[in-house]
## 1
Amino acid sequence: MAKHKKVGIALSGGAARGLSHIGVLEVLRDLGVELSAVAGTSMGSIVGSFLCSGTSLGEMEEYVGSIDWKSFLLFSDLALSNTGIINGRRVERELKKFLKDKTFSDCSIDFCCVAVDIFTREKVVLTEGKLMDAVRASISIPGFFSPVCLDGRLLVDGGLIEPLPTDALKVFDVDFIIASSIKFERDRDRYRHLLDESASGGNIKSYNYHNIGIGEHERLRNLFDLFRNRLKKNNEKTVSVQSILDTSLNIMHREMTARYKDLADIVIEPEVGDFGFFELTSGKKIIKRGREAARDKADEIIKKLGL
């Protein structure tokens, strides 16, 4: 590799879909890319902290495939408090299996993760202290996980401000940035199927699936008309909290990551839109999407880094 290139990688949020970063990192490793720094937001902070503190990518993938995610999610600790419906104790126990009591200074690769101070509404780039505490803050999805009190600040998921932490990498001396950012275009295929199915009943002939994604107002109008007519056709309640949450998070992630992608020299975008945000049971398939996306960029990576 060209010796003057100090490579950093930004790993986006995306809950279960962020497991695709493992596949991306595997391909980069196989290509001979040496990372000098890693920045992570939310799920990206988990993958990044594991990597930088010594967990191999093979161990990560083995863990993803071995845990009973249905039981894990079913029996996660409910907080039923004013700050979140999940208090995160079980998540913390799983994180501790890998992070133990390690600190940022124990990392073999420079690492940072992003959170948000809920009081000041400012981005916080965490680079010191225990990795467990920092990662737990970075993954605290508002309303789901209780916030983390750290150094006098109340911290939640960094994806609220910087879902793709390319800007956060500026805390390190890197001169080449790779971004691994989840992509949702496959959602369009799922909506197309539902839309065509509904249209066949004559309910929404005035809409066309090609309009989805052109503008957010029109996208939402199409989507909710689609859902409403699907309900009328089936005469049942098929719209779930998860489907609405997934769609909302998809829109926010896409719009918010646009300017952060511009800071990267190479952008790798695993297409994982047909997996739910909390579809951890499909972890192996999601990792595979990460590999596919990184391989598609292999020639560009080799050329730009002089591998």
## 2
Amino acid sequence: MTNRKRRVLFVCTGNTCRSQMAEAIARHERGAAWEAFSAGTIPGERVNPLAVRAMREIGIDISQAQPKSVAALGAQAFDLAITLCDSTAELCPRVDGAARQLHLGFPDPAEARGNDAERLAVYRAVRDAIRAQIIAVLDE
């Protein structure tokens, strides 16, 4: 009997913050059991630098990650697809190829206001919330 890794896809609008963080956390903390991917419905040009900084603080480097489109995934199959922002859940109510799908909404840290330290604090809070919730879901 084969113990294949299950496949999870994290979907957000731009694939520049939340879904990139979720993918990296899943790979880092549950990579033995899960193969993680992320994509966006309208991918941005680059991963947000504050997301890179927030992840680096917990020992995960996403500096080389690139936003990807859900459409570019083609007909890949996933055991689980998780939408991470409310607009994506509305725009993309069903991810093709996903055996199971759920929505975990997180605020968009890119909308944070204030100085660099205040904005980074928002990224940290979103990162920590994503980490807690996706690990709980992946461990179910």
## 3
Amino acid sequence: MKTIEVVAAIIQNGDKILATQRGYGELKDGWEFPGGKMEPGESREEALVREIKEELQTDIQVEQYLTTVEYDYPQFHLKMHCFICKIIGDRITLIEHKAAKWLTRETLESVEWLPADVAVVRALAAML
């Protein structure tokens, strides 16, 4: 089984956390923390800033590492490095996602998270 290594941004704006809904692929409609694959030679933080600029047309500041989650999907093994980030600016534009929601600690579990992201939600809830 191939391994896909990615980075994910837990984007904060005040007391809210951004959740995005996938608009494509076999995991379409699932909710996730945005991010993507690292390019050769990129650090995890550099990849995250680039991916969020590409996917959401906004800038972020990477604040701190939260967790790394590993999960076996039927077609691949996912290794996802997750970072707490702050949004810079006040606007996001969905390029690859079909929806986005700002969630509070109380509403974090109100969306249908993708399986790998469930562990991130738990780690995040423990931190908040």
